């Protein structure tokens, strides 16, 4: 155990890769390693990059990695994609493209799929961020496909969240989940050489202004940048904006970066407790066959689902629980 | 209690409205009522209508209600929207539009917002469906904004799921969450008078064909219809397709409709057990202040979140739980 911890802190790539795979596979034993790694975390700067499929997130990430390496920074990349029939291809393409960094020991790249586990995507990604942080990476770039609640939760763990769109999304830009727009610190219109980039910029500005009036205290005004990631245009400017946001965070929150702030700690602990509860109790109910028997009884009309739920849950939680009847 | 149950079965609008509000507010006592209502459920036909904001779902629902009423059917409508700053306005507009049915005792319309509760949207919506079902409605139309996992889960509870898009979504159609596409039984291109309707139809057909090859057994081939809901065009045809799908379900699954089928029962029970566990245990941890104390300790660096999670969860679940360390 302590051997694993030491190897990770020393940056041993194989050990890190194995641990992240174990996290992705939902192996419970990783928790003990994570506990020991935690004191070594808190140094990396975490950047979330999110947007719909096809907006060019991975090309952008690839260029960001190159520039950060030029500055002598070490970088970890987590590409998070809840594997789906429609996006499965993208992951493969991404990883091939990323190969230009594969011989560089200052870059560590991993994809996470995480499906079918009770804990879910958010939990695994946060743990993987902790691992890359403990490993000593200066920057951790977390790339997610921004469509669901899970992805919103993931980007909320980042220090700076970059939301990527492309021109021509026009009216449909409202289809971006509101929670994601609110979570954006910097907006990027990638493929800005395409027609309609200015219209998209204006639309986005309008939506953000509406949002800010209501929900922000007028502090950080999210900039909107145009990039052409394939031609490496605008990427340096994006990194500069990220540094500005980092400075802003430092000035407003002292040296405390978001994941150490009370609100984010509270959200992360809440998610962790939920996942854990489900894992422990549902794991048991599945193993013992109790869950399947209850399903059969409902299908056969012997019991209603509300009573079945009582019967499954109540005996498995401590009897001093408040609302137990 | 039995009085409430009797009133609901008799279709008393005020009692139903109050119960649905209590469900939406997450009041635990509703469970006892739901248990007693359950034997009276299973008769309504549930239609899910989902799609991005602005595609005209509520106008479509409004027209569907009018036609179903012409056929002498009673209808319940649940408009489900996890309240967001960007869609808040839509709900209001919808409800105003729906007022043409407000004097018709054969129609019952309610919005559900459900936020901030542990149980979440899916759980409350399913319970509300049970209530409208027990109330005796022939059809229940559940309108959701189709962007997140919650909405996917909601439509999976419907017998027939209608997915609504508009022309010109073009390439961006892939931004529709894959899970939602897979859940679609019928696709509607609304506002079909707009340019690009045929292109959208072709794109959609292609995506569905790809999907079907892999994931369906070539049985129900989801039709794609064009509608112009504001002009009441195509709505009758949509209702005919829904009837065809209902016939298909009957033939392939006997008289068992989806929510009584094993797979759906299993999914619903799983969700219900998860919500309940979280509600019971997190409710207690919040009340006693244990959760907040743990957050403070993490922020102050006295404990790591993984250990804090152990300390919160393990004492609250029965000690014979399988993976307890």
Your description of this structure?
Two copies of one chain form a homodimer. The first copy, chain A, is an alpha/beta fold and 325 residues long. Chain A has a domain at 42-257: P-loop containing nucleotide triphosphate hydrolases (Rossmann fold), CATH 3.40.50. Helices cover 50% and strands 12% of the residues of chain A. Chain A has 13 helices and seven strands. In chain A, strands 3-2-4-1-5-6-7 form a seven-stranded parallel beta sheet, sandwiched between helices. In chain A, helix 2 runs antiparallel to helix 6. The longest helix of chain A is centred in the last third of the chain and has 26 residues, at 262-287. The relative contact order of chain A is 0.12. At the A-B interface, helix 3, helix 8, helix 9, helix 11 and helix 12 of A face helix 3, helix 8, helix 9, helix 11 and helix 12 of B.
Looking at this protein, list some descriptive labels.
325 residues, 50% helix, 13 helices, disordered C terminus, alpha/beta, homodimer
User: In which order are the strands of the major sheet of chain A placed?
Assistant: 3-2-4-1-5-6-7
Which CATH architecture of the domain at 42-257 in chain A is right?
3-Layer(aba) Sandwich
Distance between the termini of chain A: 43 Å
Helix-strand pattern of chain A, N to C? HHHEHEHEHEHEHEHEHHHH
Query: Roughly how many Å is the radius of gyration of chain A?
Result: 22 Å
Summed over residues and divided by their number, the pLDDT of chain A gives a mean of: 81
In CATH, what is the class of the domain at 42-257 in chain A?
Answer: Alpha Beta
CATH topology of the domain at 42-257 in chain A: Rossmann fold
Secondary-structure class of chain A: alpha/beta
What's the story with the biggest beta sheet of chain A? 7 strands, parallel
Report low-confidence residues of chain A grouped into runs of 5 or more.
83-94, 321-325
Which pair of chains has the greatest number of interface residues, and how are they split between the two chains? A-B, 80 and 80 residues
CATH superfamily membership of the domain at 42-257 in chain A, which one? P-loop containing nucleotide triphosphate hydrolases
Relative helix content of chain A: 40-55%
Strand content of chain A: 5-15%
Oligomer: homodimer
Principal-axis shape of chain A equals globular
Number of helices of chain A: 13
């Amino acid at each position: 155990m302590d051997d694993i911890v030491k190897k990770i802190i020393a940056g041993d790539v194989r050990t890190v890769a194995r641990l992240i795979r174990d996290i992705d596979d939902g192996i419970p034993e990783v928790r003990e390693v994570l506990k020991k790694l935690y004191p070594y975390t808190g140094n990396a700067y975490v950047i979330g990059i999110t947007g719909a499929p096809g907006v060019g997130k991975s090309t952008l990430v690839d260029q960001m990695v190159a520039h950060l390496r030029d500055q002598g920074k070490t970088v970890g990349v987590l590409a998070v994609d809840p594997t789906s029939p429609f996006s499965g291809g993208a992951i493969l393409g991404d990883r091939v493209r990323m190969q230009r960094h594969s011989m560089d020991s200052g870059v560590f790249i991993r994809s996470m799929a995480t499906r079918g586990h009770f804990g879910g995507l958010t939990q695994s990604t946060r743990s993987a961020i902790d691992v890359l942080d403990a490993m000593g990476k200066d920057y951790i770039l977390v790339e997610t496909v921004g469509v669901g609640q899970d992805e919103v939760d993931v980007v909320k763990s980042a220090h700076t969240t970059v939301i990527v769109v492309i021109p021509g999304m026009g009216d449909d830009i409202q289809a971006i989940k509101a929670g994601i727009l609110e979570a954006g610190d910097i907006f990027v219109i990638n493929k800005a050489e395409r027609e309609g980039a200015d219209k998209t910029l204006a639309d986005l500005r309008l939506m953000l202004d509406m949002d800010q009036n209501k929900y922000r205290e007028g502090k950080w005004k999210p900039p909107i940048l145009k990039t052409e990631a394939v031609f490496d245009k605008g990427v340096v400017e994006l990194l500069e904006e990220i540094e500005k946001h980092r400075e802003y965070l430092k000035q407003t929150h002292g040296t405390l970066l978001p994941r150490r702030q009370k609100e984010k700690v509270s959200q992360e602990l809440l998610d962790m407790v939920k996942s854990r509860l489900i894992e422990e109790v549902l794991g048991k109910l599945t193993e013992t066959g109790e869950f399947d028997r209850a399903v059969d009884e409902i299908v056969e009309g012997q019991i209603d689902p509300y009573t079945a739920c009582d019967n499954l849950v109540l005996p498995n939680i401590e009897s001093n629980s408040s609302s137990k009847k």
